[in-house]
Amino acid sequence: MLHARSIRAEELDLFIEAGGVSHHHQEIRQYTESMFAAGSMRPEWCFMIEEEQPIGRVALWTLPGMSEPLDLVLLDVPWDDISAGELLLRRALDEARDLGAGELGYVLDAPPMWPQWQRHPEERVALLQGAGFSLKRETIRFEWRSGGTSLSVPGRLAFRSLEEVGEAAFVDAVVRVSEGTLDREIRSEREEYGPEKAGRELFDMESNLEHDPSWWQLAYTSEGELAGLIMASKNPTSPVIGYIGVVPEHRGQGYVDDLLAAGTDTLRRAGAEQVRADTDIHNVPMAEAFRRAGYTEFAARQEYGVDLPPN
User: Fold this and answer.
1) pTM to 2 decimal places
2) Is it true that the peptide bond before 69 is cis, omega within 30 degrees of 0?
3) Along the 311 residues of the chain, how does pLDDT read in single tens digits?
4) What share of the chain is helix, strand, coil (3-state, %, to 5)?
């Protein structure tokens, strides 16, 4: 009989071995332990599906410092028997709802790669859709590595840090640069919540990423007008360009290149040897800016989500 349950701390080996290809188990263990240490995962957020022996697993994940989960990770079940996956997802979604999550996400990367090694993409999508998930966004994933294209920050813009301008001015800048965005998720949130609330929520979400206030900067033209912003951060697995944008009235002048060079150089000077960033597949200008800056495309990502209304 199938049974889904959370694990105890001493059952991490069982959780790791309950899914996926065995030669990735050590990598998944290292990832899981690093997420435990960062506060992004907890043993009680890890679930197994059992039929005498563990046959599948999934875990809840969040940003460090947050109490409610944001995503599902490490999903692996018997892909030839959807009933096991359905029961496991119901258990995880119920737990996420009880923990206060109003929605939950899942990202599917192609090709399969560390740390999740997501094989069987079609079966995964079918399982997610059966549990109520829908596709929210598709992105191209980019990576910059030190030793590649040299960084040169043009002197056209004057940069002022979050500490200098204050939170209110920075949130207002987020609202301004997200106007007319080509990013499907940000556009949807502006339409659903209104520009000001959506801008505040984006700022608050990015604030959960590790960053120094000096890494977040507003950029101004020589006439003192706001041109755009750059938010460089570190997530639990990599330094990232968290958010970047140019205000509508200054688009088309190449300022995005200046912003991206500045953000990447900020992380390089902070010790980063590689920087990652995602951009919506419809945001062609941003993708081209990453390529001009020496970033290389390394994956495609589909982002799924499900609403979790209270019981």
Assistant:
1) 0.92
2) no
3) 899 999 999 999 999 999 877 788 999 999 999 999 999 999 999 999 998 899 999 999 999 889 999 999 999 999 988 899 999 999 999 999 999 999 999 999 999 999 899 999 999 999 999 999 999 999 999 999 987 566 788 889 999 999 999 999 999 999 999 999 999 999 999 999 999 999 999 999 999 999 999 999 999 999 999 999 999 999 999 999 999 999 999 999 999 999 999 999 999 999 999 999 999 999 999 999 999 999 999 999 999 999 998 87
4) 40, 30, 30
From the candidate CATH numbers 3.10.129.10, 3.10.20.600, 3.40.50.1820, 3.40.630.30, the one assigned to the domain spanning 3-132 = 3.40.630.30
d(CA 229, CA 242) in angstroms, rounded, equals 11
* Contact criterion met (CB below 8 Å) for 108 and 117: no
Domain ranges in the chain with CATH number 3.40.630.30: 3-132, 158-303
The end-to-end CA distance of the chain, in Å, is 26
Yes or no: say if 112 and 120 are a contact pair by the CB < 8 Å rule. no
Helix, strand or coil for residue 133? Answer: coil
